[in-house]
Design goal:
There is one protein chain. The protein is 30% helix and 30% strand. It is an alpha/beta fold. The strands form three sheets. A seven-stranded mixed β-sheet has the order 9-8-7-10-11-13-12, with helices on both faces. It starts with a strand and ends in a 7-residue tail after the last helix.
Length: 291
Amino acid sequence: MDLWFSDYHADQIKMSVKVKNQLLGEQTEFQRIDVFDSDELGRFLSSDGKIVFSEKDGFIYDEMIVHVPMAVHPNVKNVLVLGGGDGGVLRMLARYDGIECMDVTEPDQRFVEVCREFFPAIASSLDDPRVRFYHIDGLKFLRTKQGEYDLIINDAIDPLGHKAGLFTREFYGNCYRALKEDGIMVYQHGSPFYEGDEESCRLMHNKASHSFPISRVYQAHIPTCSSGYWLFGFASKKYHPLRDFDGARWESYGIETDYYTPNLHRGAFMLPKYVEDMLREEEGRKERMNL
């Protein structure tokens, strides 16, 4: 009998993956975690029925959320990763010798253990000596920080679940305070395509654009994400993602990639008109209080 996993992208739209077997199914204090093995995607992990990453396309997300800000900021030393328990973002950050410290907040310790066990290549940089791990809510952690980080990466996956605090008005204000005077924050912005996802995209950009003097959005094609089209947010106190982008400097690092390139960096900020219209509407709208 064929075994299929279905991820509902909308009420009447789902993406189904034929799987060879289920390797894990477990309810933690925070979420339902399932790990499957498939011919097409390799192993993949889902949280509460949503695919978080797969061995096939996870590198796209990790490269785009890391290399874009690293190609803009000239001197990143201290980084905070919120919700980076799988280790994918850390694996990309670890390639930069200039980074001195990577703090990670992941409240679900079992999630980290599962990623270590079933995705050892992705989780390999969790043991980098520059990493400091905190099993604590990211918002609580941020409340104690001021002027400490060059880069904050919000790798949280759920604006409505146990990580909802990382998408609130308070969160963006705390990120601003935790960053140094030239700090950058990047975050996954979700998909704007389906009506059910659009509102979250709007609210995130509304809050980011009202909290930071520079706020831009960029895109990537990630097949397992909702509609296959994913947005990222770039918010900064000083640096513009295109005017301050230095492709030559980034290439001098000698980092090998499979998705990101300096040319792609520029193109990623060229958005479809319906997305540009959505973002402009939120920039011109008064800051919204909910979420």
